[in-house]
Amino acid sequence: MCEIYVKADPMLYESRARSLRIHGFVTKIRLENLFWDILAELAGNEGMTTNQLIAKFYDEIEVYRGEVENFASFLRVTCLRYLTLRHQKPGERPSLAVVGTLPPTSREIPLRVGTA
Q1: Is 0.90 topped by the overall pTM?
Q2: Residue 76 backbone class (left: φ over 0; alpha: ψ -120 to 50; beta: rest)
Q3: Domains parsed from the chain with CATH numbers
Q4: Pairwise CA distance, residues 87 & 41, whole Å
Q5: N or C, fewer C-beta in 10 Å, the chain?
């Protein structure tokens, strides 16, 4: 089973930093090459450059969350969600993790009193 994974081209998991401008400020983001490739595909599907897409993501998460924490990890998760949704079969419900709603933790599950 692991053979398909361990034979991946090492270039895919080599990380690379790219400079981009967000709100007039130049910043660097370091991601593995595979994630840069996925972001380029996603950007192309949206009719944008990769840098434009990343700036748009930054703006949207800033509006939604109020701040941007660990943006590189956000981009990695975005890529994984994109791939998962892209390969979803028609009529298949996406996993809860992909749509952003996780099941409650055991502390949040109401306890039933008096049932056996």
Answers
A1: no
A2: alpha
A3: 3-99 (1.10.3990.20)
A4: 14
A5: C
